[in-house]
Amino acid sequence: MEKNEVSAHEARFYAYVKQSGGAWRTARELAAGAKVAERTARAYAHKLVELGVLDVAEVFPAHRYRFSGKAGKRNKAYVLRLDHAVEVFT
Predict the structure, then answer these.
(1) 45-66 burial, b if ≥16 CB within 10 A, otherwise e?
(2) Quick one: pLDDT band at residue 1, thresholds 50, 70, 90?
(3) pTM score of the predicted model
(4) What is the CATH topology of the domain spanning 8-89?
(5) N- or C-end of the chain: fewer Cβ atoms within 10 A?
(6) Which of 31, 1, 13, 28 has the alpha carbon at shortest distance from 67?
(7) HSE-up (13 A, CA, CB side) for residue 25
(8) Rounded distance between C-alpha atoms, residue 4 and residue 22, angstroms
(9) Is the model's pLDDT at 88 over the cut of 90?
(10) Structure confidence by residue, pLDDT tens digits, 24-68
(11) DSSP the chain
């Protein structure tokens, strides 16, 4: 699922999640904050959970996500790629 290219949307989504200070947020909240579609936010959240970058709380009525404190240990290469993409797109 990991790939070399990082889109501007993914970089913006990642930057918003990272700057949220560890707060748990729904995909809808992440979409609004990152200015992406809710469907896009869910897709990126799912991808980043699988890559170990985000933590997920599977609660009702909506899952919540936050930047993982262990992201750098779980998938350092992809976190560095995302950080570089954020730098390029901002």
Answers:
(1) bbbbeebbbbbbeeeeeebbbb
(2) low
(3) 0.90
(4) Arc Repressor Mutant, subunit A (1.10.10)
(5) N
(6) 13
(7) 26
(8) 26
(9) yes
(10) 999 999 999 999 999 999 999 999 999 999 999 999 999 999 999
(11) ---S---HHHHHHHHHHHHTTT--EEHHHHHHHHTS-HHHHHHHHHHHHHTTSEEEE--SSS-EEEE-TTHHHH-HHHHHHHHHHHHHH-
Using a 10 angstrom Cβ sphere, with 0-12 exposed, 13-18 middle and 19 or more buried, the burial of residue 32 is: middle
Closest-CA residue to 68 (of 56, 82, 54, 79): 54
Residue 69 has pLDDT above 80, yes or no: yes
